[in-house]
Every structure is written in structure tokens, then in C-alpha cells.
Specification:
This protein has about 350 residues and is α/β, with parallel strands linked by helices. The protein has 12 helices and 14 strands. It has 2 domains: about 1-60, Orthogonal Bundle (DNA polymerase, domain 1), CATH 1.10.150; about 65-340, TIM Barrel (Alpha-Beta Barrel), CATH 3.20.20.70. Bound molecules: S-adenosyl-L-homocysteine (SAH). S-adenosyl-L-homocysteine binds near residues 191, 255, 286 and 330.
């Protein structure tokens, strides 16, 4: 049964026209869903009861359930493991930033991309999230935490550009003036580098910030740790990033997880400076989160040393502020555990960095 929350306003209008309902009904329902955020047709009190019954028979309005919630003792960061309607799990992280609350959401259950250092990909790919399931991560978190979220980063589990259609619908719903009306300037999409989709996103001129997960500045090394690089080389990726900037005027952010002995040598810094010399770019450095199944590690000091190397080469770089370091299991790890344990209590892996939002 289709979740009504995934439907755009034009789709609702078409459905209501087919039912010979006046067109303002679609606006009314859209407002109940996206402004008042009801999850029961019975609450849509300005609709005739016959229509509510019909909606109830044809559509559903899903909810997500909190399976686990980890609140940091050090700051306001809260990590949620949500259960989706089909029993799958995803992770969502709420963070307090300078200008308000920011939410890091998942876009897929698992991931196909196979990045060597990433926990989200270990158990493989299960399915795409629907637009409703992305919106619900926001609605449920606001409801639980009693906050208003003013910024979204698509940096949780999954590759957003591998779920392009649903992510675009999600953005349309999120930013609709008759709905939540969030400016897409407050949204960041992070990608491992699916070049044709970066170009498609650029052509849409949405105003959102693009973050590209780079992690290596030459093809051999990047292909070793990020299989996507075997399909789209660094030169193709850089051309797509330059295109994104030329179409949108938005500076691309480059994410670089420092992994000691893997990508933090002076040669790596020189290669990165060379790669970015023609880009309007900012580099976000983070010490890699240790993932139990993988061998990579880094201290904050290693990331800071790499930042110094880059700055000396004229590259704009920062080491990201650490949020929720006491609860920060590498993204994807908690979902994995929730699946394995299905509800049993367990100690969580504790790592030492935050990778959920740029803090430039
Ligand atoms: N698939 C998208 C978004 C999800 S991953 C992407 O690749 O960008 C979000 C970010 O976390 C990416 O920059 C990713 O490379 C990074 N990341 C994944 N595992 C990490 C780890 N163990 N330590 C630090 N960053 C990690």
C-alpha cells in the first residue's frame, strides 16, 4: 500500500481528480501531512468522513519506531536507530550546530558502493528508502527530541545519488512552500562520486550543497579503497564538480577521512593540492572512524598534521569539530548490530570522530 507521505502535491491532485474531488482537497491533505504532520486519517478533520474512509482503504501513513537511542553525555548529539515499516533498520543522528539543529539521515538500507573503510556497506545493500521514510526520520526525531530541525545532511547510511529518484522527490516535499518549506540551501548531499548524477543534480540548480567523499587524490589509491573510482576516474569526478560549481555557484565540499599510513603522507597532501588547484573547494578532514571489521585508524592529531600540510600548499582545509564522540559508532555499525541482535541489549562500539556534518 502506498504511503501518502511519499506523494508530491501534483500526484495527490491527480489522485483526487480521478476520485472527482475538488482540487483544494489535495492541498488540505498535503498540509495535514507536511505541516501538521498527522499520522492518522481520522485527524484530518476538515475532510468528509467518506473521503477519509476511502483514503484509509487506499493509502497508509507510516511511522518509524525508535529501536535504540544513544544520547551523548558530552554534547547534545543523539543517535537513533529507527525501525522501518518492513522491519529493516536505519540510523539518524541529531546534532546541535551553531545555528540550530541539524539531522543526518540515511537514504538506503545498506549500501552497494563497497568503500573499504565504511561500515554501511559491510552487510551489503538491501533496498532504497522511500521519500516518506526520509521525511519520517525528520518528523519522528523532531517529535521525540522536541526540537525544530533547520538543516539536513544526507550522509547517513547509503549513497543518495544511487537512490536519485526518491531523493529528488524527498527534496521536493521537504522544500515545498505548502509543506515544510525548508530552503535547500540548508541541505547537503554527500556522494562517493556518481558522476552522471552529479551532473544531473547540477542541471537542476537546486541550491543545495554538494559534498564529495574523496579520501584519496590519485586514482590507484582511490580505486583501492573506493570501487566507484574504477567506474568514474578522478579526472571525470573533478570535471563534474567544476560543472556543479559553474551551474550552481555553490562551492563543493570535499570530504577526506584521514587514515594513517593510507592517505596522510606529504605526497598525498601534494597530490590533493594538485587535484584541487582549479576547484573552488573546501576540504573537510576527519580522522577515520575505526570500524571493527576494517583496519583503518587515525588520531585527531594525524588529521591536524595533514591539515597543516594542505594549508602550506594553499588549500582551504579544516578538521571537523567532534560531536557526540562518546556515542559515535561508525555509521552503519548500529544498524548491523540491531539486525543481528534484534532488540537484545549490547555495548556499542565507541569511536572518536563525527562525520555527519561539515563544520567549515
Ligand atoms: N555514500 C555517501 C554518503 C554516506 S557516507 C558518500 O559516500 O558520501 C558519509 C560520509 O562518511 C562519506 O564521506 C564517507 O566516505 C564517510 N565515511 C564512511 N565511513 C567512514 C569512516 N569509517 N570514518 C570516517 N568517515 C567515513
Amino acid at each position: 500500500m502506498k504511503d501518502l507521505l511519499s506523494m508530491t502535491l501534483p500526484e495527490l491532485q491527480t489522485a483526487f481528480a480521478e476520485w472527482h474531488q475538488p482540487s483544494y482537497r489535495a492541498n488540505q491533505v498535503f498540509e495535514w501531512l507536511h505541516v501538521r504532520k498527522v499520522s492518522d486519517f481520522a485527524q484530518m478533520t476538515n475532510l468528509p468522513s467518506t473521503l477519509r474512509t476511502k483514503l484509509n482503504a487506499e493509502f497508509c501513513i507510516n511511522r518509524l519506531f525508535i529501536v535504540r537511542k544513544l544520547a551523548s553525555c558530552m554534547d547534545d548529539t543523539v543517535k537513533y536507530v529507527y525501525q522501518l515499516p518492513d522491519g529493516q533498520h536505519v540510523e539518524t543522528v541529531l546534532m546541535h550546530y551553531h545555528h540550530g539543529w541539524r539531522l543526518c539521515i540515511s537514504t538506503q538500507v545498506g549500501c552497494k558502493m563497497g568503500c573499504q573503510f565504511c561500515a554501511s556497506t559491510i552487510a551489503g545493500f538491501v533496498r532504497n528508502l522511500t521519500p516518506a521514510e526520509m521525511l519520517l526520520q525528520i518528523n519522528e526525531t523532531e517529535r521525540d527530541a522536541g526540537v525544530v530541525i533547520s538543516g539536513i545532511v544526507l550522509m547517513g547510511i547509503g549513497e543518495p545519488l544511487d537512490n536519485f529518484k526518491h531523493v529528488m522527490t524527498f527534496l521536493e516535499l521537504l522544500s515545498h512552500p505548502k509543506g515544510r518549506n525548508m530552503s535547500l540551501r540548508h541541505v547537503t548531499i554527500s556522494t562517493c562520486g556518481i558522476v552522471p548524477k552529479i551532473r544531473e543534480l547540477a542541471d537542476r540548480k537546486t541550491g543545495l550543497t554538494l559534498a564529495v567523499s574523496l579520501h584519496h587524490a590519485e586514482d590507484t589509491g582511490r580505486s583501492r579503497i573506493m570501487p566507484i573510482n574504477r567506474k568514474y576516474s578522478l579526472s571525470e569526478l573533478m570535471e563534474a564538480c567544476a560543472y556543479y560549481f559553474s551551474m550552481t555557484g555553490r562551492r563543493v565540499t570535499f570530504e577526506y577521512a584521514v587514515m594513517e599510513g593510507e592517505n596522510d603522507s606529504p605526497e598525498d597532501a601534494a597530490a590533493l593540492a594538485e587535484l584541487l588547484k582549479h576547484q573552488q573547494a573546501h576540504v573537510n578532514l576527519i580522522p577515520v572512524n575505526t570500524v571493527r571489521e576494517r583496519g583503518y585508524h587515525a588520531t585527531r592529531k594525524a588529521a591536524e598534521q595533514f591539515m597543516q600540510l594542505l594549508r602550506e600548499l594553499g588549500i582551504n582545509a579544516t578538521v571537523r569539530r567532534t560531536l557526540g564522540s562518546d556515542i559515535e559508532a561508525a555509521c552503519g555499525q548500529l544498524r548491523h548490530e540491531a539486525d543481528e541482535l534484534s532488540g537484545r541489549s549490547e555495548r556499542f562500539a565507541v569511536c572518536n570522530s563525527d562525520r555527519h556534518g561539515s563544520d567549515s
